[in-house]
Design a protein that fits this description.
The complex is a heterodimer of chains A (169) and B (337).
Chain A: E1 12-16, H1 20-31, E2 36-40, H2 43-52, E3 57-60, H3 69-79, E4 84-89, H4 95-103, E5 109-112, H5 119-130, H6 134-149
Parallel strand pairs in A: 1-2, 1-3, 3-4, 4-5
Helix pairs in contact in A: 2-3, 3-4
Chain B: H1 2-116, H2 122-135, H3 138-171, E1 178-180, H4 182-192, H5 194-197, E2 201-206, E3 213-215, H6 217-234, E4 239-248, E5 251-258, H7 265-270, H8 288-297, E6 302-308, E7 312-320, H9 332-336
Parallel strand pairs in B: 2-4
Antiparallel strand pairs in B: 1-3, 4-5, 5-7, 6-7
């Protein structure tokens, strides 16, 4: 992927995590390979972005205040079924987290914090590689949905990635 | 003659009586000695039982502490894995930045050499430098490096803090009675329990200005940890845990107040009994508050509770600022009863 390609062709990623450092790290890693990374610090905000923006890949934390990650991923599966869902968590040995994420929210992959070098990028490559047309199809589908539900919010409307970051507490 | 016979008779009677008395005395003495011996034996046995009780009690305290720490370890791992996750990701990115910057520096050096030598290739080198700056997104890299380093530093100091606090918490141990800054101890305890607290409650630290208090810091920390974890577990969704400290006459006190589910009067009657628990199986050992009770006794102090079902609970620890009159193991009072 090329960093200089046009905005509407960039892979759209949404990272939901209550840790500012975590959001920034994911954004850094993936924007270096051309993704546009949107961020939210809680599930409700993240789902709002998911409902209004074409997102191809959702990377979600598990333990968060308010809505927990598994519930967010379940809701995401309904709101935007074509978005690839990934759980990024330090709780990956906890069956209470992992079992419903895999079987209920049907996540594409489970990634442990701290993650091995390059595994986030490999994830993006795998998602695109495993489904050569998926990226384009995803965009179309998401666009369709957005056009029918909220015409103004269709792809390419904004220059900057969303960021649900609140000012440092 | 008659008198002599009578005298002899009297003397004999007296001798017999004395012999009798002596024999009886001997018996009594023997009995007493026996009794004494068995008393000594019983006493020794009692001392042995006491020692066993003491060691059982201190094992109880230790096992509660271990259970507590075990429960926290998972939470601490999570607390640590988050910053470790983003710091290591940042280091990788930084490695790429450095790689790009080195490429850029090489190009710049070529340009400088070309300029110094008034080389014809200078314009070409300049173009290469400009192109490279674009390709590596130089402006962004330069801008981001400082932020990246600051965030990574913040992450690492969090790891340092949590690991340090956990170490202090596990190591500050019972035997030493000494002056302690309770507000600082409270901060340390909150930090160790943070993963249990942060999604459940806003922790309000309404510390008073208090003098150094003499206590077994490790034991008090253990009690505080128990109270904090209990408070968080009593809160269903989200609430508040308020910590207050203060002085009342010769006593120091710490209040831990939660807006959780509270307790019925009946539950309150039992909470300091060993193995009494209202938590689900696997959630609690039933030892926490019993151990807290024993620990407060070892401080010549007390743990008290006020609670209202559905409203929340307040636990108060109180003991003399100057510490307990006598140093001693936790079960002193328990065995004296």
């Amino acid at each position: 992927m090329n960093r200089s390609c046009g905005h509407e062709h960039r892979y759209q990623v949404l990272c939901i995590d209550d840790e500012p450092g975590m959001r920034q790290a994911v954004r850094r890693e993936l924007s270096r390979i051309g993704c546009q990374v949107h961020c939210a610090d809680n599930g409700v905000e993240g789902l709002a972005i998911l409902g209004a923006t074409p997102i191809q890949l959702l990377i979600c934390d598990a333990a968060m205040p308010g809505m927990n990650g598994v519930d967010v991923l379940m809701a995401a599966a309904t709101i935007s079924p074509e978005t690839t869902r990934v759980l990024l968590t330090a709780h990956c040995a906890n069956p209470e987290v992992v079992v419903p994420a895999v079987n209920g929210a049907r996540i594409y992959r489970l990634i442990a914090k701290p993650w091995p070098d390059g595994s986030l990028r490999r994830l993006v490559m795998d998602v695109i590689g495993a489904h050569p047309r998926k990226w384009a199809e995803q965009r179309e589908k998401v666009n369709e949905r957005l056009v029918t539900s909220a015409p103004d919010q269709a792809l390419g409307g904004e220059d900057d990635a969303h960021d649900g970051n609140r000012p440092a507490q | 003659m008659m008198e002599t016979a009578q005298l002899n008779e009297a003397l004999n009677r007296e001798r017999r009586a004395r012999c009798d008395a002596e024999r009886r005395l001997e018996v009594v003495t023997r009995e007493l000695t026996d009794a004494n011996r068995s008393l000594v034996a019983a006493n020794e046995e009692l001392a042995g039982v006491m020692a066993e009780l003491q060691s059982a009690q201190s094992k109880l305290v230790q096992s509660d502490k271990l259970a507590c720490i075990g429960q926290l370890a998972a939470g601490v791992a999570h607390e640590v894995n988050n910053p470790v996750g983003y710091v290591s990701s940042n280091l990788n990115t930084l490695g790429e930045y450095v790689e790009d910057l080195l490429k850029y520096i090489t190009a710049c050096r070529d340009l400088v050499t070309a300029c110094v030598n008034h080389d014809d290739t200078a314009p070409e080198s300049a173009r290469a430098v400009a192109e490279l700056a674009d390709a590596i997104d130089l402006n962004h890299v330069v801008e981001d490096i400082e932020v990246l380093l600051a965030e990574s530093n913040e992450g690492l100091s969090r790891v340092r803090k949590i690991v340090g606090d956990l170490r202090d918490f596990a190591h500050v141990d019972g035997p030493d009675l000494g002056p302690c800054d309770l507000n600082a101890l409270m901060d340390k305890t909150i930090s160790v329990a943070w993963n249990e607290l942060k999604y459940k409650a806003d922790v309000v630290r309404a510390y008073g200005e208090i003098p150094m208090a003499t206590c077994y810091a490790g034991r008090i920390g253990q009690v505080l940890l128990n109270l904090l974890v209990n408070a968080a577990q009593a809160i269903e969704q989200r609430g508040e845990i308020r910590i207050q400290t203060g002085v009342d006459g010769d006593d120091i006190w710490i209040d831990v107040t939660d807006t959780g589910c509270g307790m019925s009067a009946e539950t309150m009657d039992h909470i300091f009994e060993p193995f009494f628990t209202t938590k689900e199986v696997g959630q609690g050992t039933g030892l926490g508050l019993h151990v807290a009770y024993q620990i407060m006794r070892s401080h010549d102090g007390a743990i008290t509770v006020t609670s209202e079902s559905g409203k929340g609970s307040r636990f108060r620890l109180q003991w003399p600022v100057a510490g307990p009159k006598e140093e001693g193991p936790i079960d002193d009072d328990a065995n004296a009863r």
